[in-house]
């Protein structure tokens, strides 16, 4: 009975008095808020009143508290409260003891009752028919592609009869052979939880959870390699464009799935609009599916209009079937089926699906990209947000005005299965109130209302969906959705490998690259530049950008063309201007580094004016009219020398630090101006292509080479400081509605702007790390502000020298900022000799195969020749250059790092005699502390790389533990003053 019924029989409603001011909140909201407390605080709050006692002893609450705090393998102790208290006691000297349950009269909750029912119901008595998904026995590849692929789901039989897994994958078999193997658990938390299989089986037998834990492990092939031998991919699904990537490069694509009755997967669309097959080996699954663009009842799609990330709010699969499915009229029900052991279901790209396990099930699934869904995957990766929302939510993703404009330009498809869902106002489903009759007129009018946008012309067609792509957003220039299944660098590499490795499919690949890379625009620009400088016309292969960098790069004949687009027009001009100023100084100083940098052949500015392209040569030392018209230079900036050189860039970086992504790109959004540079093409290969085949001796030589060349770079003189009075910059920031940093310093001006920029980046460091999320531990994110010092000038070892201005013991240097494996060029210098004295017959030096890409040729020796891509040049602490090199090139190998330092031979602190005068304690004397703080403050997700390489540090208790494990070698380095 509910509270009103309790009052009718003479029981006093305890809720108002027991909750006090919290009585205005619903039970559901209170339970949600309790999840943000610590276990200790929840235990204390349970003592406040009888109602709070009930709410604070709910098992789903303690399940959430446990899963958000567990580190390491999880062992279920019979209840989630006991499990949480066991974990809590192991990390604390205080012990919390569970107490007996109380059931006070006078308080009843419809919300808690419904949740209790979901926890304890069984599915034996539910009537599930075979469903209406077509069943097909072992179709031919031609029939599958013609009838189903990219069109509709199908249940396939007879595909896996010969798999060993078909007969061996049972709970008993897995328990016997993999009982101690740890598998990843799916849960509603960003944390990754592991359980030994024997502990998971014990959990399945004891649990009564409304959303039981579910083994959903994409790394099972690494933990239990024998399982990969028990099945094979059927010939219907052999085409997979991700196959061109190495195993550690491709995004997650295969999963072992094990779950008890009532568990399942809530409503979702598979990542990146990939297609999937799912084979059931044990138990029964109930599937519900909707065509693309039709959002299921009870589901809300959120699309971030800044980076296009898509988040879905959905009830659990059991809750949806119990609470929402009965409210649907027959014409609105999903496509359904019950999957039996040995059957494989195919889910096409973009289809919504929800799965409920009717009993304990074991299954294996894989997602794939083939010629049918490739363009959809590329579209999903593209920057922007309208198209992502439309792909998942149909016309619900559009504002009213946009939809009205669209209706005039679309054709209606009466028989198209790809229809949309409710109107925007109907997107959130009203949950029935306690005691409300689901069959009354109000509820019926809401639930059974016709989905009047189903037939409004929505079509899951690539040309139709591409209409919603924001044409002003390109792959290089705008934020990448954190929900994408691969990063920007990985996406560029994947498309390039497809372009080279699948020449017969280049027309399709080009279409996908135009959606994601904006490849057509950059290719057109490259053709204009080639023609202006009398370069040979690009071949078909050469019209595709190479590499994984942040700017389009083309290899045409013996030249490399780089178009500056990263960060927008302003950032592009500072990027090229600084690079040209650097080359000028490099030649003036006659530095040995010039022998290991590609020769500059030309540079200029390409722009679009009145529909035609024009080019102005530019060496960075003046201000052409096309730049002057952009009003990018501050009024007081001198126009002689290099107006867009490194000091102008430092001011720009300071202004940009702390801005939101939208603020930092908005000023350059509609400009059609692109700086570019043409350099001599290097022979050989980049280190990223050779990494797995290069001998250890050659890699050690590379470490020594990098030490020598970074020494040459850091010894190069930099131009005199030309930074104006900071009061002018702060005034500009205040006028632009940006908060200036309250900061005063007497340190030299060149260090002043460096520290000010770091201070701006420090402002919301915890928010930035939280946004990046896994694998950065949340426990460390909470401690980051206390780890990073308030006064960042302490990194500089500032000291007073009599009446002289303050001096800094740190060297102030040019820094490359981007020493990574794709910016290091290697050349072959000989053949490997084998023990019998024979050699492999290979040419000493070649130009590689098409466009500089081919697989590693065994038998060659490689040596480093050039360092590439100086577009990210800056000035500052040379320690910054060690971070990307150590993490990306050396992959955290301390032996290579030590070899580098032995060759570098420069002090990272000018004078050690003043260290004792540094305030703040011994941590500032540790160079490892400097490197760790720089890693945290870096604008790129450096921490993601650190916790990826050192997975064991995800359980670290402090930043000091991470610091010493990663950067401890620096503390042994004294340099050679």
TrEMBL record:
Phosphoprotein found in the keyword field: no
Family as reported in the entry's similarity comment: Belongs to the JARID1 histone demethylase family.
Gene3D superfamilies from the UniProt entry: 1.20.1280.50, Cupin
Top-level division of the source organism's lineage: Eukaryota
Lineage, opening ranks: Eukaryota, Viridiplantae, Streptophyta, Embryophyta, Tracheophyta
GO molecular function: metal ion binding; oxidoreductase activity
PROSITE patterns: JMJC
Record key words, sorted: Iron, Metal-binding, Nucleus, Oxidoreductase
Cofactor names: Fe(2+)
Domain named JmjC: residues: 223-385
Gene Ontology annotations for the cellular component aspect, listed alphabetically: cytoplasm; nucleus
Source species: Rhamnella rubrinervis
Subcellular location(s) per record: Nucleus
Listed name of the protein: JmjC domain-containing protein
């Amino acid at each position: 009975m509910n509270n009103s019924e309790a009052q009718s029989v003479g029981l006093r409603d305890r809720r108002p008095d027991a909750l006090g001011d919290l009585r205005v909140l619903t039970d559901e909201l209170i339970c949600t808020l309790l999840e943000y407390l610590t276990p200790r605080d929840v235990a204390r709050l349970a003592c406040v009143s009888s109602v709070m006692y009930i709410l604070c002893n709910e098992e789903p609450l303690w399940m959430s508290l446990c899963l958000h705090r567990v580190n390491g393998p999880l062992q279920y102790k019979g209840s989630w409260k006991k499990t949480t208290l066991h974990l809590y006691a192991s990390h604390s000297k205080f012990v919390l003891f569970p107490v007996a349950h109380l059931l006070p009269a006078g308080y009843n909750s419809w919300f808690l009752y419904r949740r209790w029912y979901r926890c304890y119901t069984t599915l034996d008595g539910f009537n599930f028919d075979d469903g209406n998904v077509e069943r097909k026995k072992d179709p031919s590849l031609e029939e599958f592609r013609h009838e189903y692929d990219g069109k509709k789901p199908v249940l396939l039989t007879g595909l896996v009869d010969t798999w060993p897994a078909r007969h061996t994958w049972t709970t008993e078999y897995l328990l016997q052979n993999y009982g101690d193997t740890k598998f990843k658990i799916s849960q509603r938390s960003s944390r990754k939880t592991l359980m030994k299989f024997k502990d998971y089986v014990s959990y399945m037998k004891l649990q009564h959870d409304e959303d039981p834990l579910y083994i959903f492990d994409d790394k099972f092939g690494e933990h239990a390699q024998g399982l990969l031998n028990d099945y094979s991919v059927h010939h219907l699904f052999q085409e997979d464009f991700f196959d061109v990537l190495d195993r550690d490069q491709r995004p997650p694509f295969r999963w072992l799935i094990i779950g008890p009755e009532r568990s399942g997967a809530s409503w979702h669309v598979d990542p990146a609009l990939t297609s999937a097959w799912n084979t059931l080996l044990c138990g029964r699954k109930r599937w519900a599916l909707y065509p693309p663009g039709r959002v299921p009842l009870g589901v809300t799609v959120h699309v971030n209009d800044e980076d296009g990330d898509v988040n879905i709010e959905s009830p659990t699969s059991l809750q949806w079937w119990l609470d929402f499915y009965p409210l649907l009229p027959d014409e609105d029900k999903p496509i359904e089926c019950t999957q039996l052991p040995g059957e494989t279901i195919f889910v096409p790209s973009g289809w919504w699906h929800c799965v409920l396990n009717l009993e304990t099930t074991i299954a294996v699934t894989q997602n794939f990209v083939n010629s049918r869904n490739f363009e959809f995957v590329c579209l999903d990766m593209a920057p922007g947000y309208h198209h992502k929302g439309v792909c998942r939510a149909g016309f619900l993703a559009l504002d009213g005005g946009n939809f009205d404009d669209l209706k005039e330009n679309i054709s209606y498809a009466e028989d198209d299965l790809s229809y949309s869902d409710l109107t925007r106002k109907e997107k959130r489903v009203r949950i029935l109130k306690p005691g409300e009759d689901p069959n009354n007129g109000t509820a019926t009018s809401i639930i059974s209302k016709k989905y009047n946008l189903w037939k409004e012309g929505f079509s899951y067609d690539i040309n139709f969906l591409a209409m919603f792509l924001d044409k002003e957003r390109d792959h290089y220039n705008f934020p990448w959705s954190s929900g994408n299944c691969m990063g920007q660098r990985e996406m560029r590499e994947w498309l390039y490998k497809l372009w080279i490795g699948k020449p017969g499919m280049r027309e399709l690949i080009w279409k996908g690259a135009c959606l994601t890379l904006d490849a057509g625009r950059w290719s057109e620009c490259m053709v204009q530049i080639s023609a202006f400088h009398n370069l040979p016309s690009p071949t078909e292969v050469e019209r595709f950008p190479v590499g994984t960098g942040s700017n389009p790069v083309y290899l045409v004949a013996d030249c490399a063309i780089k178009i500056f687009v990263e960060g927008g027009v302003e950032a592009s001009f500072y990027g090229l201007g600084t690079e040209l100023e650097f080359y000028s100084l490099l030649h003036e100083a006659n530095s040995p580094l010039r022998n290991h940098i590609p020769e500059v052949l030309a540079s200029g500015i390409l722009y679009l004016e009145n529909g035609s392209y024009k080019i102005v040569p530019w060496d960075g030392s003046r201000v052409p009219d096309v730049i002057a018209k952009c009003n990018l230079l501050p009024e007081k900036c001198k126009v002689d020398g290099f107006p867009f050189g490194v000091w102008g860039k430092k001011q720009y970086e300071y202004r940009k630090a702390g801005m939101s992504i939208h603020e930092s790109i908005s000023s350059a959004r509609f400009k059609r101006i692109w700086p570019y540079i043409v350099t001599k093409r290097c022979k050989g290969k980049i280190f990223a292509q050779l990494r797995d085949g290069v001998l250890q001796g050659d890699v050690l030589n590379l470490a020594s080479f990098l030490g020598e060349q970074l020494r040459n770079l850091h010894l190069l003189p930099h131009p005199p400081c030309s930074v104006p009075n900071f009061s002018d910059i702060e005034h500009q920031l205040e006028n632009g509605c940006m908060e200036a940093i309250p900061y005063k310093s007497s340190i030299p001006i060149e260090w002043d702007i460096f520290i000010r920029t770091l201070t701006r980046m420090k402002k919301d460091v915890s928010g930035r790390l939280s946004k990046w999320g896994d694998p950065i531990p949340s426990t460390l994110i909470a401690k980051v502000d206390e780890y990073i010092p308030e006064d960042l000038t302490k990194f500089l070892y500032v000291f007073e020298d009599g009446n002289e201005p303050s001096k800094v013991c740190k060297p102030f240097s040019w820094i490359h900022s981007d020493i990574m494996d794709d910016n290091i060029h290697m050349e072959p210098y000989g053949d490997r000799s084998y023990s019998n004295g024979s050699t492999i017959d290979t040419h000493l030096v070649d130009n590689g195969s098409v466009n500089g890409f081919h697989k590693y040729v065994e038998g060659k020796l490689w040596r480093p020749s050039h360092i590439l891509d100086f577009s990210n040049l800056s000035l500052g602490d040379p320690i910054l250059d060690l971070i990307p090199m150590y993490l990306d090139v050396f992959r955290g190998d301390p032996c290579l790092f030590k070899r580098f330092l032995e060759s570098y031979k420069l002090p990272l602190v000018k004078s050690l005699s003043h260290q004792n005068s540094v305030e703040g304690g011994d941590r500032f004397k540790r160079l490892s502390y400097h490197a760790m703080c720089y890693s945290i403050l870096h604008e790129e997700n450096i921490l993601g790389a650190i916790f990826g390489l050192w997975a064991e540090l995800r359980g670290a208790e402090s930043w000091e533990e991470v610091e010493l494990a990663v950067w401890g070698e620096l503390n042994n380095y004294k340099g050679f003053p």
